[in-house]
């Protein structure tokens, strides 16, 4: 199954205002954009509303591949849990306004009981389902507990919620010691979203995640990973999420075009 297209994650152009990131993505030829919770927060700090952001994104002509929420809901309690669930609900509503059916959230960074995490995954799945949204949950190679594909898959399997599914990120897959073969073991339709960037061949530092590169600059076997995801039934967008201060210091359109040219030949046909 071929992917739907390629999206540019706004973190890739973090120091560029959203309006500039949209222009760069459109000029370079990306099919879609991925928005963060932070994009809406920065707009609010500048006196703009969420409706202003949504109107601007729609005017760009770019599809919206995914909208980000906040992590921390797996083990949060009390007022903080209420806040995080409200944020998720809010981001789901914004995704619907943008014609997007996927919201993503990283898993928690700390540790907690797996059964508690599974119960939370069911709860956030219900929030997403109420909007017709699928929540893509990402394991993070730098996290304490949910730092590998197999650990995240186990939590999702325990939850068993059709609207809470796996986010596969090539950077975290390779940094956590995973491979394309691990993706081949995934059940059909288990993946709800794909993010990608390359992992440096040398110089990895624990806790460092702002060293992401365009495809072909590192060690990720993109053709194999993408083909394995497609074979498991994934046909959505692949989002290029590559925060790196070296890229932030360059012209955003050049960064966007360079990454797109490196990525398109790798897509499954």
Record keyword descriptors for this entry.
single chain, about 270 residues, alpha/beta, TIM Barrel, eight-stranded parallel beta barrel, 8 strands, globular
Note down, in words, how this protein is organized.
The chain has 269 residues and is α/β, with parallel strands linked by helices. It has one domain: TIM Barrel (Alpha-Beta Barrel), CATH 3.20.20. It is built from eleven helices and eight strands. It has an eight-stranded parallel beta barrel, surrounded by six helices. The chain is globular. It starts with a strand and ends in a 6-residue tail after the last helix.
User: Tally the helices: what do you get?
Assistant: 11
Within the CATH hierarchy, at the fold level, what is the topology? TIM Barrel
Measured as a percent range, the helix fraction is 40-55%
Please write the string of helix (H) and strand (E) elements.
EHEHHEHEHEHEHHEHEHH
Give the terminus-to-terminus CA distance: 7 Å
Q: Give the radius of gyration.
A: 17 Å
> Order of strands side by side in the largest beta sheet?
1-2-3-4-5-6-7-8
Strand content: 15-25%
Shape: globular
Just name the CATH architecture.
Alpha-Beta Barrel
Number of domains: 1
Low-confidence stretches: none
Characterize the main sheet.
Answer: 8 strands, parallel, barrel
| Counted beta strands | 8
CATH domain class name: Alpha Beta
Give the CATH H-level superfamily: Divalent-metal-dependent TIM barrel enzymes
Mean pLDDT: 96
Protein structure class:
alpha/beta
